[in-house]
Fold:
Amino acid sequence: METFASKLKTLRLKQELLLRQVAAAVDVDTSMVSKFENGERFPTREQIEKLATFFKVPEDDFLIEAYSDKLTYDFNEEPLALEILKQTVKKIEFKKMN
Structure:
C-alpha cells in the first residue's frame, strides 16, 4: 500500500526535482523534506497544502494520505487501535451535528 512518504518521493523524482526545490516551495529545510519522504516526520496541514499545490495534486487526497499515515504510525502497536478510531469517528460525527 502506498504511503504519503512514498507518494511524495515518487512525485519529486518523476518531476526530476531536487530536495532543495521542494523544500523551498514548502518553506522548510532540505532535511525536513527528506524526513517526510522517509516517513520519519509528518508534515503539518499547512505544509501538506503547500506540497499539494506545488505538485498540482488534489489537496484532499494528500491530506487524507498524510493523516492516515500519521494515525497508522501512532496506533501501530496499540491493541485497541480500531476501537479507539471507531470511538473517535462517533465523537467527530456528534460534534458536527451539534
User: Anything to note?
Assistant: The longest helix spans residues 59-75.
